Amino acid sequence: MSVNQQAHTGPPYGQPQPGYQGYQQPAYGGQPLPGVPQSQYGAYNGPMPGYQQPVPPQGYFPSLGFPSKGSPVSLNSDTSSLAPNFIGSLRAPPTSGAPPPASGASLPSGHLTYSQFGHGDVQNGIPASAAPMQRPPASQPFLPGSAPTPVSQTSTFQQYGPTPASVQQLSNHMAGMTIGSTTAPAPPPAGLGYGPPTSVPPVSGSFSATGSGLYTPYTASQGPSPTSVSQGLPLAQPPFPGQPVSTQRLPTQVPGFAPSPSSTGIGPSSYPPSTGASRPPTMPGPPLPGQTVAGPSMSQPNHVSSPPPPSTMSGPHPGPPMSGLHGPPPPTHPPQPGYQMQQNGSFGQVRGPQPNYGGAYPGTPNYGSQPGPPPPPKRLDPDSIPSPIQVIEDDRSNRGSEPFVTGVRGQVPPLVTTNFLVKDQGNASPRYIRCTSYNIPCTSDMAKQSQVPLAAVIKPLATLPLEETLPYLVDHGESGPVRCNRCKAYMCPFMQFIEGGRRFQCCFCSCVTEVPPHYFQHLDHTGKRVDFYDRPELSLGSYEFLATVDYCKNNKFPSPPAFIFMIDVSYNAVKSGLVRLICEELKSLLDYLPREGNMKESAIRVGFVTYNKVLHFYNVKSSLAQPQMMVVSDVADMFVPLLDGFLVNVNESRTVIVSLLDQIPEMFADTRETETVFAPVIQAGLEALKAAECAGKLFIFHTSLPIAEAPGKLKNRDDKKLINTDKEKTLFQPQTSFYNNLAKDCVAQGCCVDLFLFPNQYLDVATLGVVTYQTGGSIYKYAYFQLETDQDRFLNDLRRDVQKEVGFDAVMRVRTSTGIRATDFFGAFYMSNTTDVEMAGLDCNKTITVEFKHDDKLSEDSGALLQCALLYTSCAGQRRLRIHNLSLNCCTQLADLYRNCETDTLINYLAKYAYRGVLSSPVKTVRDALINQCAQILACYRKNCASPSSAGQLILPECMKLLPVYLNCVLKSDVLQPGPEVTTDDRAYIRQLVTSMDVAETNVFFYPRLLPLTKADVDSDSLPAAIRNSEERLSKGDIYLLENGLNIFVWVGVNVQQGLIQNLFGVSSFSQISNALSTLPVLENPFSKKVRSIVDMLQVQRSRYMKLIIVKQEDKLEMLFKHFLVEDKSLSGGASYVDFLCHMHKEIRQLLS
Ligand SMILES: [Zn+2]
Q1: Which is nearest to 868 in space by CA: 432, 487, 430?
Q2: 770-793 pLDDT, tens digit each
Q3: Distance in Å, CA 937 to ligand 1 centroid
Q4: How far, in Å, is the centroid of ligand 1 from the Cα of 494?
Q5: Distance 488 CA to ligand 1 centre (A)
Q6: In angstroms, what is the span from residue 181 Cα to ligand 1's centroid?
Q7: Pick from 183, 394, 162, 356: which is nearest to 958 by CA?
Q8: CA 503 – ligand 1 centroid, Å
């Protein structure tokens, strides 16, 4: 990742600024330029006021309209029709001479001629002159969600001629910014949210009307009170009676570790109560939860509410010091007397000790081997420590009912597990950007002291719920977007217009830039442009610009992309029925290629290749009666043997394509070929796209380790004995650099590779996945693929993958205001310099996590700004820029940092950081580093923000009270601590998946959702309340569902009533339930319908179709299921939550002493 193999191809600011040529024009005064339709912008009406509706499940809405599949069409088995066209072993293209421009370079039918100024009623371009300040009526021209693409812009194509094949990266358009200017950025936007009491609108002044008012409900609901984990210290006195509450978020005291809200100004940096005390006036509204003295127990019913007796926890640990948690901490915890045993409402079972696994398990070399005293007589009550379920539910009830309005700087959004609507009022939606903290330290010293990583998880093309408005597309015509002269930041709500509107000062670098004449507008008495609400780029956090030709490779508008389907037809693929399945599916799936807005048909062209040791290309030109096959057996120097007829329009060539897809399974029905090649397949796709001068995506369906003689040939190097050794990292590294180089070429061409793997044995995902990973593609793995059980999952994944929104040839840059800068990047992409993230393809599910570091001081007044600019080619070939802006607060008090963190995002970052670390460091080192960093984060809080208390008290910041439990889940995950059943390929696969996950995905992946199905209300649409992931929460008489984004388990207790079993499985007894089921039987009764609707709902929410696994209690598969009960000890040696919390406490105390 983040390879810097190539010098940047252009000077950072070398690109001429489009849009300044016409500057002499005396167009001041808001007169529209000639040629710019006055009305075309009028339809943009600014943000819609007032979302009121409850939110449907957020997330993905893929494939809903996809037709169900009929039974396979009988295939034309007459392969002889192809025989005449077999051209053996070609060495050169059959067509002589230079290839003609690919047929695909011509415009697809139905396109419209490109016009720089857009047409008709689209929402692009320049608004009518001098629009009054009030917003137009909220008649949205677009039906949000009616199309997968952002805007129903007239499909605008340029008449592009063929471009030279040579490729030049365009990153210089995303030109660099200079940081370090000491000039103070624009006027202080302080006061919003956490700033000084003087409530000053942000830079643009645009949020003053709504900001403070809207903030109120959030502060109120954001303020869960402290949680304390008591490990036995007295919770004696009522916590801090009458203490002024100075914060929105108070610390969590893990019950028994004792109470003590952090807000008292104590500790070295003495967080003064006055800081906060001065704030409440700016935050009218209901009293903060923390303002009541009973904070912890009130908002955390799950936590202890009465003081346990003094704890011996404060005493020294008798056990040996533990550096890094290999296994769970040894059971050396001193007695934990006095926990208030709390019965969790829904579970009447007596809280016993943690499920008591024996000491040594296979694969747990470290656990059990450590000396230590016998287990303590009494342990921490799991109900008294912070509960993820409780936190999730509290956030849902506090924040799920009102829209999240983004007009206020530094607001912490609701959790990813809360359904909420977002209203863009100047900052990007949390669906696009989430941060580890929304209030960042002013100095790097503070940041280092806290050890809280400053990172943003960015999902630039995120899918929005239907109720939310897609980003508007702004068309500035030939001049292109308005940008800062120096840092090239794009026009955004935080730019400050000065001198009557003739110039603007950059909010990122403070440079002053002339406003281009065509963009001039008068300012109102507050200094705001009068067209403020008419321009998305002035009033919204997220929007798009239509890119000009300057933003295109070789200064030519791109062709529409192409999809190439490349099918392994070796023995295993044919025998398993996979080849036939794929071919059948493609016949209908090709009608569902992504299309732009309201276009009738997709602009994407398609091509087909099959392969084993050799490659077969197919000519499916519409004029042919039958498809033609061309075989390339010399795979050492891959070329494409045909150009005309390889990439075609589906509708034009439908007959020939269907004929081909009918014949492929028959042609290879009797194959004996077991060996495959792999790299030449990618090379072939790459060459085809090069020849067609377009970007595109390869869909490769592959079954085995490519051992046939060819470039990129691999050997089986799997060796589980390397686990827990210094060489373990090699299991995650590619075995050859060949694929890295290939990936680089693919990125240069905009060739994204999606990989569907069907292995029956090791096939080296770590190596095969390299190109997918670096091109921004997706990888899917179906081990031991069986038609009967796996086809639904595969076909659903394939349909979503083909249909999902994707941008091609993408370059992303994140600009920041002076004082911080993006220093590190995590995700599926390629980097040829230190600032530009390049992706051959970027789809709606992919995230890029960006870390920031200080390079100067920040100011509380100015805050900090991020601008993420993504340049990409849409599925119709339109070049666009998508801009997301986010403003954050800055603080001089550590308490403000801790009060505005988001643990889910922090975990997303930490997991990605650790998963990258295993490439270069021993896994143990990575795990130890994670533990150490989190201990430092919590120790810093304890030292500087919490009130003084006995060392025996574990005090956690409220916003981070789940950090220990979630961190433990990351440490126990298959990548960092594999169980015996986890294969090397599984680990490489998971590693790759997690690297692109968004915050919601990592949240459920590391802490799965566990639902008691038997508690579901069959008459309501709601889900049953989730429970904590521990075996002791399961009742033998109930049925549970557990999902983690990749799998769904349905666990059936041995004592489940026969009637329930009959209703759900259609069999009369527990013993008759088959755990070979991959779907639930369709039965006509309310319970069956309810459970299936829950499963369907979850499937739609996740980006991948989850595998359904039936687990009977005490059955052998239960081991697999228990692996996901992440609060328990794991078979691979992972610590239980309780044990890990004690261990973290010990680490923290060591740091403090
Ligand atoms: Zn600038």
Answers
A1: 432
A2: 999 999 999 999 999 999 999 999
A3: 33
A4: 11
A5: 6
A6: 10
A7: 394
A8: 13
Give me the torsion for CA of 169, 172, 173, 179, rounded to 10°. Answer: 150
**What is the residue type of 1029?**
N
**Strand, coil or helix: 1027:** strand
CB atoms under 10 Å from CB of 1022, counted, come to 9
Position 597 confidence tier, pLDDT thresholds 50, 70, 90: confident
Work out the number of other CB atoms within 10 angstroms of the CB of residue 876.
Answer: 23
Could you tell me where the beta strands, DSSP code E, fall in 794-878?
806-816, 820-826, 837-843, 848-854, 864-873
Distance 510 CA to ligand 1 centre (A): 6
42 alpha carbon – ligand 1 mean position (Å): 29
Which position has the higher pLDDT, 176 or 914?
A: 914
The helix (run of H) or strand (run of E) holding residue 1110 is strand 1107-1112
852-865 pLDDT, tens per residue?
A: 999 999 999 999 99
Q: How far is the CA of 1072 from the centre of ligand 1 (A)?
A: 69
Q: How far is the CA of 521 from the centre of ligand 1 (A)?
A: 20
Separation of CA 176 and ligand 1 centre (Å):
10
122 Cα to the center of ligand 1, angstroms: 30
Tell me, in angstroms, the distance from the centre of ligand 1 to residue 447's CA: 25
Tens digits of per-residue pLDDT, 503-514?
A: 999 999 999 999
Residue 88: count other Cβ atoms within 10 Å of its Cβ: 8
Q: What 3 state SS string does 904-972 have? A: HHHHHHHHHHHHHHCCCCCHHHHHHHHHHHHHHHHHHHHHHCCCCCCCCCEEECHHHCCHHHHHHHHHC
- What pairing do the DSSP bridges indicate for beta strands 848-854 and 454-458? antiparallel
pLDDT band at 253 (very low <50, low <70, confident <90, very high): low
What spacing in Å lies between the alpha carbon of 428 and ligand 1's midpoint?
A: 19
Q: Residue 497: enclosing H or E segment and its boundaries?
A: strand 496-498
The percent of residues above 90 in pLDDT, for the chain, comes to 63
Q: Is the pLDDT assigned to residue 260 strictly greater than 80?
A: no
Q: Is 885 helix (H, G, I), strand (E, B) or coil?
A: strand
Q: Separation of 30 CA from ligand 1 center, angstroms?
A: 24
Q: How far is the CA of 408 from the centre of ligand 1 (A)?
A: 22
SS3 274: helix
User: Could you tell me the distance, in angstroms and rounded to a whole number, from the CA of residue 815 to the centre of ligand 1?
Assistant: 9
Cα–ligand 1 centroid distance for 450 (angstroms):
30
State which of 123-132, 284-293, 346-355, 802-811 shows the largest mean pLDDT.
802-811
- Contacts of 96 by beta carbon, 8 Å cutoff, 6+ apart: none
Q: How far apart are CA 1104 and CA 1046, in angstroms?
A: 7
Residues 703-719: what's their mean pLDDT?
95
pLDDT at position 981, please? 85
Residue 437 Cα to ligand 1 midpoint, Å, equals 24
Residue 1069 contacts residue 1061 (beta carbons within 8 Å)? yes
Q: For residue 161, is pLDDT > 70?
A: no
Rounded Cα gap, residues 72 and 24, in angstroms = 67
Could you tell me the distance, in angstroms and rounded to a whole number, from the CA of residue 174 to the centre of ligand 1? Answer: 12
* Packed helices 654-667 and 578-589: angle between N→C axes, nearest 10 degrees: 170
Tell me the torsion sign for CA atoms 58, 62, 65, 71. negative
Expressed in angstroms and rounded, the spacing between residue 132 Cα and the centre of ligand 1 is 28
Q: How many angstroms does the Cα of residue 179 sit away from the middle of ligand 1? A: 9
Compute the distance from residue 526 Cα to the ligand 1 centre, in Å: 23
Helix, coil or strand: residue 568: strand
Provide CB contacts within 8 A for 112, sequence distance 6+.
Answer: 119, 154, 155, 156, 157
Is residue 233 scored above 90 in pLDDT? no
In this prediction, residue 901 carries a pLDDT of 97
